[in-house]
Design goal:
By secondary structure, the chain is an alpha+beta fold. It has helices at residues 83-89, 155-164, 217-232, 245-257, 264-278, 322-337, 411-426, and strands at 3-6, 16-22, 29-30, 35-40, 45-49, 54-59, 66-68, 72-77, 235-243, 284-286, 291-293, 299-301, 303-305, 308-310, 313-314, 351-355, 374-388, 391-405. Helix 5 crosses helix 7.
């Protein structure tokens, strides 16, 4: 029996996602678990794996198009089943002529430009797959916006154009309805900045308008989630100071024999995980009608990416050796920046670590990432005056601030956890045993 492949729910609460690219073609044989498409969400690009085996009978969605979660995107035929029969059996009728015929029409599902009004939608055009190769040289020519001012491009294309300094209004789209797709940007370079004539400033000179930058899917998701977090989660804060001399000395010794470089952040993540093991009452999350007490220690690590922030989760962080933990964090960070994280790697965890120490920040407070109940804001380790045995001395001190969800963590528990964390940092050999 034919199998209908549907747009997966790759992110909690998402109502739609964009198909970035197909990894298969019509007629290809697909095995269960094989990656068949790349799906773009608010946070990253994920590979979607086939849930059944079969032969690709029809691809229903063009790359760059955003469709609703659960909508059909492809049809797989069983062994020996004709493509036409498979599509009919799937309840989608005969294979659409739009998949092959250049005159067929396709609905436009592109995200409109946030800076222009939703005016009339232009007439549907041929799918990008049907565009003849002879038209390729024409792709470099500018194309006027359709009536109403709407510009059709996927969120990924908009982000790439912004990063490369490209003006999408000057690019001819080869996708459905003239939509600009990723391949239209390949090889294009941003024009040199204009040379402005220097003029003396006058009191009556016009002030330039601020640049309006459309929101990417990730930026919009961050704005929505953090606003909800601050508005609905009762944050409270506990700060602590850690003496870092022993930890820094131990790190230097480890790096003399370690196959890879161990960072201070690796040791901090390990200390966070072990402190959660020491104080299991802090290893909890809000479950709506209940409190979830976790039996594993999974810690999310904040990673800055273009136009946003991702928090991939290191599972069983308390059980990993420091080298294995460092490798896991480095792998997640690299794939976060290249957009190759899997959805399950962004889910779970009761705590996050947000480290701005590399920027020299003295102290800061972070916003919780629900449903996680804690986030540790880590500042720079700096030399400060300290008191040792009643005398003034100079010590290397790192300030940290815990943001906690008061629905599940009380002040005494937060203070106990902070004491356990500081103890682990200041007795760093405990991180290795």
């Amino acid at each position: 029996m034919a199998t209908v492949v549907r747009m997966p729910s790759v992110m909690a609460g998402a109502t739609e996602a964009a198909l970035q690219s197909w990894l298969i073609g019509v007629g290809d044989t697909v095995t269960e678990g094989q990656a068949i498409a790349e799906i773009e969400t608010d946070k990253a690009v994920f590979e979607h794996e086939a849930e059944a085996a079969g032969t690709v009978a029809q691809l229903l969605v063009e790359p760059g198009v955003a469709v609703a979660v659960g909508a059909p995107i492809a049809v797989l035929a069983d062994a020996g089943e004709k493509a036409e029969d498979a599509v009919t059996a799937a309840g989608l009728g005969a294979p659409a002529a739009a998949a092959a015929a250049p005159d067929a029409a396709a609905p436009d599902a592109a995200v409109p430009d946030a800076a222009v009004p939703d005016a009339a939608v232009p007439e549907a055009a041929a799918p990008e797959a049907a565009a003849p190769e002879a038209a390729a040289p024409e792709a470099a020519a500018p194309v006027a916006k359709p009536a109403g001012g709407r510009l059709f491009a996927s969120p990924l294309v908009r982000r790439l154009a912004q990063e490369r300094g490209l003006d999408l209004t000057t690019i001819r789209g080869t996708g459905p309805n003239g939509r600009i797709v990723r391949r239209d940007l390949d090889g294009l370079q941003a024009p040199p900045p204009p040379v402005l004539e220097a003029r003396p400033a006058t009191a009556s000179a016009e002030r330039p308008e601020p640049e309006r930058v459309p929101l990417t899917r990730m930026r919009a998701a961050i704005a929505r989630r953090l606003t909800e977090s601050k508005a609905t989660v009762p944050h409270f804060y506990v700060s602590g100071d850690c003496r870092m001399e022993r930890l820094l000395a131990l790190r230097s010794e480890i790096n003399e024999v370690s196959p890879g470089r161990i960072s201070v952040n690796d040791l901090i993540v390990k200390a966070v995980a072990l402190a959660l093991r020491d104080v299991p009452a802090a290893n909890v999350t809000w479950g709506g009608e209940s409190i979830l007490r976790h039996r594993t220690v999974d810690v999310a690590v904040a990673v800055a990416v273009d136009d946003g922030l991702l928090t991939p989760v290191v599972q069983d962080a308390d059980r990993l050796g420091i080298v294995a933990l460092s490798e896991a964090i480095a792998d997640l960070a690299e794939r976060a920046r290249s957009g190759r994280l899997r959805q399950q790697e962004l889910e779970g965890g009761s705590f996050s670590v947000s480290n701005l120490g590399m920027y020299g920040v003295g102290a800061f407070s972070a916003i919780l990432n629900p449903p996680q109940a804690g986030v540790l804001a880590v500042a720079a380790a700096k030399e400060r005056p300290v008191v040792e045995d009643g005398a003034l001395a100079v010590g290397t001190v790192m300030s940290v601030t815990l943001s906690a969800d008061h629905r599940v963590i009380d002040g005494a528990v937060a203070a106990e956890w902070m004491a356990a964390f500081v103890r682990r940092i200041e007795s760093p050999l405990s991180l290795l045993v």
